[in-house]
Amino acid sequence: MNKAILSILGRDRPGIVAAVARVLFDQGCNIENVSQTMLQNEFAGIFIVSLPHGLAVETLHEALFKRLSVVGLHVHTKPCEPPEEAGAAKPSEPFVITTRGPDRKGLVADMSQVIASYGVNITNLQAVFKGGNEPGDNLMIYEVDVPLTIDPQALARDLRAKADTLQLDINFQHRRIFETLHRI
Amino acid sequence: MLTQREIVSTLEMLKNENLDVRTVTLGVSLLDCAGSDLTQMRQRVADRICRLAGELVPVCERISQKYGIPVVNKRVAVSPIAVVGAALAPAEMVELAHTLDAVAREINVDFIGGFSALVEKGMARGDRSLIAAIPEALATTERLCASVNVASTRAGINMDAVILMGQTIKRAAGLTADRDGAACTKLCVFANIPEDIPFMAGAYLGIGEADAVINVGVSGPGVVKKAIDRALASNPGMDLGDISELIKRTAYKVTRVGELIGREVAQQLQIPFGVVDLSLAPTPNVGDSVGEIFQSLGLLAIGVPGTTAALALLNDAIKKGGAFASARVGGLSGAFIPVSEDLNISEAARNGHLCLEKLEAMTCVCSVGLDMVAIPGDTSAETLSAIMADEMAIGVVNNKTTATRLIPVPGKKAGDQATFGGLMGHSTIIPVNNAAGDNPFIRRGGLIPAPIHSLRN
Questions:
Q1: Architecture of domain B25-191 in CATH?
Q2: Which of A50, B1, B355, B391 is deepest in the core (most CB within 10 A)?
Q3: How far is C-alpha B121 from the chain's CA centre?
Q4: CB atoms < 10 A from the CB of B179, how many?
Q5: What is the mean pLDDT of residues A79-104?
Q6: pTM, rounded to two decimals
Q7: Nearest-CA distance from A113 to chain B in Å?
Q8: d(CA B335, CA B317)
Q9: Boundaries of domain holding A156
Q10: pLDDT at B93 exceeding the cut of 70
C-alpha cells in the first residue's frame, strides 16, 4: 500500500488537527502516525498516512491545500519511502547531551557538527533560547543514538572541548539515568 | 522522548543539590584465608582483595561518567578479622591491619572496613586479640576502619566488652593525640550491627554473606532539603503528612540512582548485587547537610524541641520511599546525624542547641547513633563505656541498630574545636555530664540480659 507523509505548518489555533483529519478521512486515507508540537505560537504537525488504491499523492495534496491554505496553513506532501530493512540500523546506546550557557548564534550548528562528525544520529532535539546570559534560560537537549562501535567518552571529550569554546556548561549522560529518576 | 522537565530536574539535582552515589562498597569474604601462619595469611588476604577489587575503582569511574553521577567513595568491606585471624596475637593483628591498609592504597579505595569483632554474647581469643590491636592498628594506618558489635536484641549487652571498648577508645585517642584523636573517627561500637552496611566506619562483610557482593550507599540530604524548600515556597500551607509524602517521593528518586549504578557495577565486575543502603549521609559541605533539613522543616536548629519528632518523620519517609525504589534494602537505611561530618549539625553543637542528651534521644528514631561526637579529652574510659551502654540499651530494647563513634579529644575541653580533616570534618567539643568521674555501675561488668521480646522462638 502506498503511503504519504505530510507536514503542516502555521499559526496555532483550535481545529487544525480536525481540519487535516477530515480531509484525510474524506479522501479515504488512514492515519498511521502523527507527531505534533508547538514552538512559541506556531503549530507543526507531521502525518504518515496510507493511501487508498488509486489515490495519487498529488491528488491528496490538492485536497489538503484547498482546505488548509484558506486558513493560513502550509502543507507539504510527499510519497513516504518504505523503511529500511529490519536489522539495518546499527546497534546503539541512547545518550542525552544537554548544554546551558549564554545565547549566541551558531550554538546548534557547532554542537551538532561535532555530533555528526561521529556519525551519531540525533533522535530528538529541544532547544529553548530566551536570550541573555542566564544559563537556565538557554537550554539545548539532544537525544542521540551512539553506535556501539563508537567510544562515547571520546565523543563526550570532543563535545566538552567545543562547549568550552562556546562557554557552555555541558552534560553527556546515558538516557537511562533520566528514566530511572523520574519514571516508575 | 524525555520531557524538558525530567531533564532540567535531573540536572538541578546533580549540579545544585549534591545528588550522588555516596559509596559503592565491595564485600570480600576472607574466611578461607584464615590460618595460623601470619605471612601466608597476609599474602592470601592481599591476593584475594586485589583479585576481586582490583577493577572496582576504574569500573565505578567509567559508570559514573556514563551516567554523569558522581560515585564519591569506593570501598572494600571484608569478613570480620577477629574470625579470619582468630589464631593471631595482637601484634600480628596489627601487621594484618597494615596489609589491609596497603592493599586499600594499592587498589585506590578510600576505606577498607572489617577490622571487626562480634562479641555481643562473649569474647573468643581472636576477638580479644583484635580489640587489643585496634588502637595501634588505627593509629598506624590511614584507610582501615574498625567496628565491634557489643550488643544485640537477642543476646543483650556484653558489658565486659563495653568496658573494654571504653579503654580501647581512650588508648586510640591517646595514640593520635597530635591529630585530635583521629583514630577514633574510624572506630564504631554497635548494637545489632547489620551484615551489609556499605558506609564506614561500620562496614564489614557478614559471616552469612557470599564470597563477594556489591552494596551501595546512597545519600542526598541536599536533594531532600531543596525539594522541601521548593514545595513550601509554592504551597506554604503544607502539613507534615504532605511533607512526608514529598520526602518519600524524593527518597525514591535518590535510591533509584543507587540501584542503577550498583547493579551496573555488579554486572561489570561479575559479582552479585547485594543491597542499597538508603541513608541520608551528609558531608561537611554546604548544601549537603541533614541538619539543614530541620531548618527547612521550620525548626530554629537541629537540637531544639521538635527535633526528635522531625527526625522520626524524616527517617520514616526515607525508608518508605527508598523501599519501593530498590529490590533489596539493607544496611542502616535512614538518616545519619554525624556531628562533625555535617556542617549544620556541627554549628548547632557550637551554638549550644544540640547536647549529648538530645543526640541520644534522637538516636531512638534515627538509623544510627552517637556518630562522630567530639567530647572532652578528660572523659574517663568508664564514662565512655557508660555512654556506650546507654546507646546500646536503646538499640537492644528497640530492636534497632545503634552505634557510637565517640572521639575523646586529647588535651581539649568542652567548647574547643576538634578537626579531623576531609570527610570527617570538624566539630565543637560537646560537654559530658560527669566526664572524668568514676562509675561503679559500669565496673560491675557481666551481661545485661536481652529484653523479653527477644524470646520469639
A1: Alpha-Beta Barrel (3.20)
A2: B391
A3: 22
A4: 17
A5: 82
A6: 0.88
A7: 22
A8: 10
A9: 92-182
A10: yes
